[in-house]
Here is the input.
Amino acid sequence: MIARRAPPQRPAPAARAARLDDGSVIEIAPGRWLGRAHGVHVGNARKHYWHQTTLHDDDGNLLALSTPYKLVPEVGIEFAAGLACDLDRDRAVISFGVEDDSAWLGETTVSGLIETL
Here is the structure.
């Protein structure tokens, strides 16, 4: 896979997304980092998580943010932890947990994630 981590001397750009929790980031072009982040809402004694695709520059500035989406719409708790991309094959894999009891892998295209922005 073609992937590169954010340089260790500065915080990962997705960590600075506006009021969204931690996410993974992949450099998709010089100075452009594609990521995913998540948010949570607690209501009716149940947690509801959602995800957003993010685009940052090298300084961690948020350039674009998708509308919120769910990976498994029928569940409340889903926590995406990782993002791996193969840019040459236009493939993206997201690792995530569902209802705190099972681990899943979701597959989509890098271009599809970019289109959400």
Helices lie at 110-115.
